[in-house]
């Protein structure tokens, strides 16, 4: 999609309009091809600390739908969030740096397209879906839709890169995790 289509898709007119968790949801849940340079242009104009709060809110919401007992999936998403927000806030003075955008894009592709979660329905049919769709199915179960058995084993293949985080950010991350546990 070209730059104008991307802006329309994200429901923004300028990069500064990217200020709602719905914008994060639109972006992360898309399986459309997006030009990395267009994404970098948008995120370079945004405050990393503010966008990281939007990502935290989004992750908090989706992590509510990780099935009970799927500790490894929950921890993986927690670690991805920690990595993304650390990169968003780390040392780049004029907005979110290109490394953070590359990592966001890598996560988006894995989360919405490349990950494999196997759902087995009540008739024994198995469905191979990305993590995004598995969490959506779990959400729909809670609303009375059909139920599934979930196998997240093949979704654990998301490699996390190391990143630099300052001590203040580390304290904020620990506080955030404590809030999630309560």
Q: What is the typical, i.e. mean, pLDDT?
A: 88
Compute the number of strand runs. Answer: 3
- Please state roughly what percent of the residues sit in beta strands, choosing from under 5%, 5-15%, 15-25%, 25-35%, 35-45% or over 45%: 5-15%
Q: What's the shape? A: globular
Biggest sheet architecture: 3 strands, antiparallel
Which structural class is indicated by helix and strand composition? mainly alpha
Distance between the termini: 41 Å
Poorly predicted regions are 163-168
Strand neighbour order, sheet with most strands: 2-1-3
- Write the element-wise H/E pattern from the N-terminal end onward: HHHHHHEEHEH
Fraction of residues in H or I helices: 55-70%
Radius of gyration equals 17 Å
Explain this structure to me?
The structure is a single chain. With 182 residues, the chain is mainly alpha-helical. The chain is 57% helix and 6% strand. The protein is built from 8 helices and 3 strands. The protein has helices at 3-9, 21-28, 36-44, 48-63, 71-89, 98-114, 131-142, 167-181; strands spanning 117-120, 126-129, 149-151. It has a 3-stranded antiparallel beta sheet. A hairpin with a 5-residue loop joins β1 and β2 (126-129). α3 (36-44) crosses α6. It is globular. The model is unreliable at 163-168 (pLDDT under 50).
Question: What is this entry, summarized?
Answer:
The protein is mainly alpha-helical and 182 residues long. It has helices at residues 3-9, 21-28, 36-44, 48-63, 71-89, 98-114, 131-142, 167-181; strands spanning 117-120, 126-129, 149-151.
